[in-house]
Amino acid sequence: MKRMASYDLIIVGGGIGGSALAQIMAGAGRSVLLLEQSEVYEDRVRGEWIAPWGVDEVKRVGLYDLLMSAGGHHLTRHVSYDEDVAPAEAEARTLPLGIFRPGVAGPLCLGHPRHCQTLFDAAVAAGAVGLRGVSVTEAAGGAHPRVVYEHGGRTHEATARLLVGADGRTSTVREAAGIVLHQDKPHHWFAGLLVEGAEGWADDMQAIGTEGDFGFLAFPQGEGRVRVYGGYALEEARRFTGVDGPRRFLDAFALRCSPENRHLVAGSPAGPLFSYINADAWTDEPFAEGVVLVGDAAGWNDPIVGLGLSITYRDVRIVSEILKAGDDWSTAAFAPYAEERAERMRRLRFAASITAALDMEFGEEARARRHSYHARAAEDPSLRMHTLAVMAGPEAAPPEGFTEAHRARVLQG
Question: What is the DSSP string of 146-208?
Fold first, then answer.
């Protein structure tokens, strides 16, 4: 084992949250060790869409120009399709996406592998020690945080003032710190695929729709590439398995309610098809002595509303502000982060559960519920107040938008 090295911060996980935090803190003059398991970032159908409120967070941490230079792509309009709404009517109700945050044109899309690599390189350029192909074998918080890891065929040990867990849903750091993760019941399956050759799909338009036993979302990345997602019932776990699964998945997008989907069906898979069970997870306190968690390591929102990156960037912004404010990195210093995150995730969990019930439930009863909701919401926009949390931020919607009374109003038949 080599001589033990010491840092201000050891960040386990060099994805978006870990690399962003490393770049910010290294740029602030702190010594940072950034450890990433993968040697090459690959498409794992992870978050690539940043909501307008998340774009604001990107700007606040000073990374917006970097992401735009790496190919960041704004979406400026949204269309909601449905089997009981004529396509022309749905398109006549196109929602402009620049209305949610001043100075933000709309959601920002950037391919996940490129996003990760851009931030990792920026962290190293800022002075962080960034290592790839790392296997963390031990992690400990407490009064003397430390990690033991394998890299380059050798065992290394390092200590730090603070250990940051940015290592995703199965976080080693979270487990080592004894931080409990709560999860709700799965609601539906959600699969994602990158499509190329879909030049006919407008580069600035995102869409969502439900027809029959399938719900879809589409987010273009430009130049004929579109990230598509599809939701389907829990009992259909094997619906898109097998070597021809990606092709059958794209064929499922041939929906009458959304004629533009023909461009997606005509495209070709440009990456793997992965399916996940949609559910929320959260921690009561995303910290312990000598440890703090960011991103999915601290708990995640149901991907039906696509807020993983927005959540992560707010985590990074709040944690970095605490760390840069002074030398008090005790658990007490992170209490405001825990309080804000708990309420943030509660609200987003609520908004996602309503969205899943409306858009990713199937059959005649669900169809009638959607039809009723769309008709009533056209007359009473307050029925959509929970959706403001998704686009403008969880604090932008009034408290009554996260009550059982609001859920009952939205989901009544």
Answer: EEEEEETTEEEEEEEEEEEE---TT-HHHHHHT--EEE-----EEEEEEEES-TTS-TTEEEE
Residue from 184, 256, 258 nearest 228 by CA? 258
For the record, the structure tokens of 101 come out as 């945050």
**Position 45 pLDDT exceeds 90:** no
What tens digit of pLDDT does each residue of 323-376 get?
Answer: 999 999 999 999 999 999 999 999 999 999 999 999 999 999 999 999 999 999
Q: How many CB atoms lie within 10 A of CB 29?
A: 10
Q: Name the residue with tokens 């609001």.
A: 406
83/371 Cα distance (integer angstroms): 9
Averaged over 76-90, what is the pLDDT?
96
H-type helices in 261-334, by residue range? 262-265, 308-325
From-to residues of CATH 3.30.9.10 in the chain: 74-103+188-277
Domain 74-103+188-277, CATH 3.30.9.10 — does that match?
Answer: yes
Q: Looking at residue 4, what DSSP letter applies?
A: P
DSSP per position, 50-61: E-HHHHHHHHHT
275 DSSP β-pair partners: 191
Whether residue 195 contacts residue 267, with contact meaning beta carbons closer than 8 Å, is answered with yes
Of 17, 321, 332, whose CA–CA distance to 173 is shortest?
17
Start and end residues for every CATH 3.50.50.60 domain found in the chain: 5-64+110-183+280-345
pLDDT average, residue stretch 313-328: 97
Q: What pLDDT, on the 0 to 100 scale, is given for residue 366?
A: 95
Q: For the chain, first and last CA: distance in Å?
A: 65
The answer to whether the CB of 198 falls within 8 A of the CB of 307 is: no
Identify the bridge partners of residue 80 per DSSP, sorted by sequence position: 208
Q: State the Cα–Cα distance between residues 295 and 13, nearest whole angstrom.
A: 10
Of 64, 69, 63, 55, the closest CA to residue 102 belongs to 55
Radius of gyration of the chain (CA): 21
Q: Which CATH superfamily is domain 5-64+110-183+280-345 in?
A: FAD/NAD(P)-binding domain (3.50.50.60)
Contact 96, 77 (CB under 8 A): yes
* pTM of the model as a whole: 0.97
Q: Measured in whole angstroms, how far is the alpha carbon of residue 193 from the centre of its chain? A: 15
Q: Are strands 146-151 and 135-140 parallel, antiparallel or unpaired?
A: antiparallel
What is the C-alpha separation between 225 and 195, in angstroms, rounded?
5
